[in-house]
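Hi there, hope your week has been kind to you so far. Would you mind checking whether the tokens look sensible for this chain? I owe you a coffee for this, so here goes:
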Amino acid sequence: MKNKFGFTLLELLISLFIFTLIAIILTTALHRSFSLEERVKNSLSQSHDLQMAMLIFGRDLAQTIARPIKDNNGQAELAFVGSPESLEFTRVGFINPFGQFARSNMQRLKYQLSKEQFDRESWPTLDRVTQTQSEHKKLLSGVSEISFKYLDAEGHLSPTWPPANGNHLDTHPIAVELNLTLKAYGKIRLVFPLTEGSFNEN
């Protein structure tokens, strides 16, 4: 018989079961909410990193200048050299406030894939010596593949620069095609135009 002043054991067990079931449902929903929030944050962070990396890469390319250099062994290198795996060039716009550093405003850069990261390598001087050390900056992580292609003024796309035909030794391509395979987004193809006249001697 039901107690007028309380609950029977069966009613308490049923109430406890319902409460437990609701708690499980709420906990699962809350966990999914947190997981979704974390995925959204990761996606936004990856998107921001990608945009910043492409902004820096495009800015550097737009500042390309016709300044050959000497490598660490004293060997001359063209102002703009590209392969399917890497791209090396001289750019202007290396900030030197009030000329306080004993260097020019030009900088040698190299872009390549290194340990699943889009790597920007730079040197403090253009004409290097054996002891000259480079600096690496990782612009983007989670990169599984990378390749470059180079478009000349005649509309021919080449995997190297200068092209294998030996032309365009003293010029830069009019555009660089960058193909990335990212773990987060898959394959991405981007084209970066080089401004006309950006290869004039400073």
About this structure: The chain has a mean pLDDT of 83.
